[in-house]
Amino acid sequence: MKAYQTAFIDTALEANALCFGDYTLKSGRNSPYFFNAGLLYQGKALATLANCYAQAIIDSKISFDVLFGPAYKGISLAAITAAALYETHGIDVPFAYNRKEKKTHGEGGQTVGAALEGKKVLIIDDVITAGTAIREVTDLLATENAELAGVIIGLNREERGKSELSAIQEVERDFGVSVASIIRLQDIIEYLARRDDASMLQRVRDYQQQYGVDTTC
């Protein structure tokens, strides 16, 4: 596990954005951990978050022209990551985001920020649960004559949905792009092993055994 991935987990734990315990997910599953990126709102946490996303994008080697943040959480993620890419890596890319409702006055349109036409677009978000937001954005990109370059998220739960595939694997299959992440469930397991938290480590491993996907496919 790389230093920025450890920093991401440390920061998420400090902000209670990543918690261990007993949680019932929207899917009805009982999970030993829970992640809520919405709790990463302090300046220090956002600075770390931005640098982690920027480094994960660099590591992914995904080629793109514009960062796109789906409303609402993705908007701030796109903005801070674009700034971090420039400040830390000297990469100057614009960002854009969508409105929940199309604006009919002023500049109008359904998107705000950089023009998308003819551009390769990297979607940035916190997690992919069912893939609904990603599919909505890809429909929007099609109307803007833009190309989906890939997706970057904070956490890949590496967890299957109703089928044997995870929502992330379904997105990769359906759109032919890569979905990269700052950390995966396996990184959380490695982190717990380093902390010598045997009880929680076993619970997360049991959860992975029950609901995890085959990451080799």
Task: Break the fold down into its secondary structure elements and pairings.
Elements: H1 3-14, E1 18-24, E2 30-35, H2 43-60, E3 66-69, H3 73-89, E4 95-103, E5 109-113, E6 120-124, H4 132-143, E7 147-156, H5 167-175, E8 178-184, H6 185-195, H7 198-211
Parallel strand pairs: 3-4, 3-6, 6-7, 7-8
Antiparallel strand pairs: 1-2, 4-5
Helix pairs in contact: 1-2, 2-3, 6-7
Q: List low-confidence stretches.
A: none
Largest sheet: 6 strands, mixed
In oligomeric terms, what are we looking at?
single chain
Strand order of the largest sheet: 5-4-3-6-7-8
Element pattern in H and E: HEEHEHEEEHEHEHH
CATH class category name: Alpha Beta
CATH topology: Rossmann fold
The rounded distance between the terminal residues' Cα atoms is 21 Å
Query: In one word, what is the shape?
Result: globular
Average pLDDT figure: 92
Helix run count: 7
Strand content: 15-25%
Describe this structure in words.
This protein is of the alpha/beta class and 217 residues long. It has a single domain, classed as 3-Layer(aba) Sandwich (Rossmann fold). Helices cover 43% and strands 24% of the residues. It has helices at residues 3-14, 43-60, 73-89, 132-143, 167-175, 185-195, 198-211, and strands at 18-24, 30-35, 66-69, 95-103, 109-113, 120-124, 147-156, 178-184. The strands form 2 sheets. A 6-stranded mixed beta sheet has the order 5-4-3-6-7-8, sandwiched between helices. It is globular and about 50 Å long. The mean pLDDT is 92. 5-phospho-alpha-D-ribose 1-diphosphate binds at residues 26, 72-73, 99-100, 103, 105, 125-133. Orotate binds at residues 34-35, 129, 157. Belongs to the purine/pyrimidine phosphoribosyltransferase family. PyrE subfamily.
